[in-house]
From TrEMBL:
Keyword Amino-acid biosynthesis: yes
SUPFAM superfamilies: NagB/RpiA/CoA transferase-like
Binding site for substrate: R57, G58, A59, R100, Q207, N258, K259
Gene3D superfamilies xref list: translation initiation factor eif-2b, domain 1 (1.20.120.420), Translation initiation factor eif-2b, domain 2 (3.40.50.10470)
Identification of the protein by name: Methylthioribose-1-phosphate isomerase
Residues at the active site: D248
UniProt key word Isomerase: yes
Pathway participation: Amino-acid biosynthesis; L-methionine biosynthesis via salvage pathway; L-methionine from S-methyl-5-thio-alpha-D-ribose 1-phosphate: step 1/6
Any one Gene Ontology BP term: L-methionine salvage from methylthioadenosine
Record keywords, A-Z: Amino-acid biosynthesis, Isomerase, Methionine biosynthesis
Site, Transition state stabilizer: residue positions: C168
Catalytic reactions on record: 5-(methylsulfanyl)-alpha-D-ribose 1-phosphate = 5-(methylsulfanyl)-D-ribulose 1-phosphate
Amino acid sequence: MPRREESASYRTLGWVGDEQTGHLRLIDQTRLPTEFIEIDCRDVPTVWEAIKLLRVRGAPAIGVAAGYGAVIGARSQGVKDEGTVRKALAEATAYLRTSRPTAVNLFWALDRMDAAAAATPPSNGPALLKRLLHEADAIAEEDRAMCRSIGKFGAELVQAGEGILTHCNAGGLATADYGTALAVIFSAQEQGKHVHVFADETRPLLQGARLTAWELQRRGVPVTLICDNMAAQVMKERKIQKVVVGADRIAANGDAANKIGTYGVALLAKAHGIPFYVAAPSSTFDLSIADGSAIPIEQRDPQEVTHGFGRQTAPAGVSVYNPAFDVTPAELISGIITEKGVIRPVNAGTIREVLAG
Ligand SMILES: CSC[C@H]1O[C@H](OP(=O)(O)O)[C@H](O)[C@@H]1O
């Protein structure tokens, strides 16, 4: 049963109860900003659907949701027999891997859940399930800590009074808490360095208009919403001194996949001499791929484009191209703000050095 509640401080998602009878609770982000609805996920298909339909979204938040989804799946065929729990976990993680292809955090989290089970010596079903919930909780807690550290390092780059442009939503809603790109802004604000944010609405699903503007308003950060096609003009008018965005998967050389439109913003920033930063935790790096050409780009339902805003906005049968992400080459990125420090210049060597730190 959905819960309607506008709490002063919200929790994007989290576990409620114990490992045997508890469940995942998450804000249904498709209902924001007009409705604050939380949904309780008690089976794996509900978690899968929540990820697929962006009820929960944002690379780190998807990873956290997948971790808890693995716990729900592991107990789905009974808890008593340990072999049954192991088999159910494997089926659940394999299924959750099919929900969305681009955010590497999904696969990173599910790998962690599978590895936690493999590293747990034979015991019994309840003990294994408790261990799995512990791992899912650790993924969430680590993400909270990484976001605050990203905020700390990122805020050092911010000057009071700057105009900062961001694209899509890389706020608390995209993570376990506090965000990545928005963490930079929240942390700067907490240090008394107030900035003005220009938020791209981010078609077709409007994460910027619906979610970033909502988050910033709630925290008292001045925000101006712009259409995606206005970014060049606000840069030309010298309203923007910095761009900070999130990421869904960063290759070993620093090429970064993020919401569609990010690559264009990076090109505009370059053309206007504006620093362009990516903020992402180490769990968003995929060092198994050399460059961005290997990042799978999700293709989404054409109706997201033709039936946005609650009405049909294109002729029936029109051909639609709807990639959900694009890849910004490392040479357009001034620095990558991680929980371990700022990677700059951005290249395979500096990435290895900072992530190893
Ligand atoms: C902090 S990662 C946020 C990242 O995820 C978003 O994609 P989606 O809304 O489709 O999950 C977007 O690329 C954000 O930058």
